[in-house]
Amino acid sequence: MKLVYGKEGPLFVILLALSIIIWAAVIVASFGIALLYMLIFFVAYLFAHSAYISHIRGTGARISKEQFPDLFERVEAACKKLDMQKVPEAYVLNSNGILNAMATRFLGHDLLVLYSSVLDALEERPEAVSFYIGHELGHIRRNHLLMTPVLAPGRLFPLIGAAYGRAKEYTCDLHGLTCCPQLEDAQRALIVLAAGETRWKNVNVSAYTSQMQITGGFWMSFHELISDYPWLMKRVEHITAMGQNRGYERPSRNFFAWVIAFFVPRVGIAASGASGLVMIAIIGMLAAIAIPAYQDFLSRSQTAEAEALMENGKTALVQYYQENNAWPKDLATAYPAASSSGVGRYTDTLVLLGPSGESLGILVTMKSSGVNPQIAGKTIELWTTDNGASWHCGPGDANPVDPKYLLGNCREQGAP
Length: 416
Prior knowledge:
This protein has 15 helices and 8 strands. The protein is α+β, with helices and mostly antiparallel strands. It has 2 domains: 8-270, no CATH class; 301-413, 2-Layer Sandwich (Glycoprotein, Type 4 Pilin), CATH 3.30.700. A 4-stranded mixed sheet has the order 1-2-4-3, with helices on both faces. Strands 5-6-7-8 form a 4-stranded antiparallel sheet. A hairpin with a 2-residue loop joins strand 3 and strand 4 (109-115). Helix 1 (8-29) packs across helix 7, helix 3 crosses helix 5 and helix 8 packs antiparallel against helix 11 (232-243). The longest helix is centred in the C-terminal third of the chain and has 52 residues, at 273-324. The chain starts with 7 loop residues before the first helix and ends with a helix. The relative contact order is 0.07.
């Protein structure tokens, strides 16, 4: 039996290509600062995820030869069927009624978690538990957990981002079916998710899968197209078809649902407003942090030009003084580039302040347009009070630039 759903491979290639392009563009456009934010977000995620991993290891009962040996044998047997050399850590965790299982990854270590409620529900059909084990091992075997951050940008795209999520679920269902001795056990394992801890026993599988016909309508088509999960009845029919070695047929989705879904970026699980709102909130928080920081970075990169021009002007003034034993009456005499308006891409004018005794300065004004609004029209000054023996840099007296938009040395020296 094949273990990979047909569409997963092509969708993975498309998303990987899109994600690499987006990551590269973000890094280049941010002059590498995006790498710093990636590191910050990774550290934040590491601490947040470590709390859940610690909860699993500190609360759950680890499956071993000594503890739940029956489950341990199932996990080992499933790994053997799937040609997995390494058996992951596995735990039983109280799920407070949630019927499911999960796989997660932390610093290179894979963990398999079986929720207590699904184990209790399937106590009369223990072989069905092998389906859950195989399904979650599928995520580990296919490196779904490892590739999640890499594919993150591409998965925001409408249609294909969610389609890849659904393809992964179909793939992992095939892994579960491979590990499950009987097709009926696999069917019942999924039906538990639909009918609950006791009612699953009375569900008619054929009647349940026949409900697929209603999924071709606009609303059900739309919500599936923006979802990471296929409708459960489709998953049951899929493993039924594969277990019976026949074709998998499903209703076509509504055309207008495709059109509308094309304009909806992937935000997670359909039919779960809370999930979508959480994802939107996370994106909003990241944007609230990243966008101002990026704007500050751009402002500093633009004032860097002004500071470089002031340094060039200072060099020209010092050379002029060495040759003439006096300061020029205007900056253009020593530094012709300062004679025209718009001397740089972001810098408007450079003018000489003084000379007055031993005091001398160069005042730079940023352009009023074409630069970040925070520094538009603002001034920066480079000055000496000891006839050129030492120089200082900082915001100008009139309409000064905020020091935070200056580079380190200039920002630290303050105003004249």
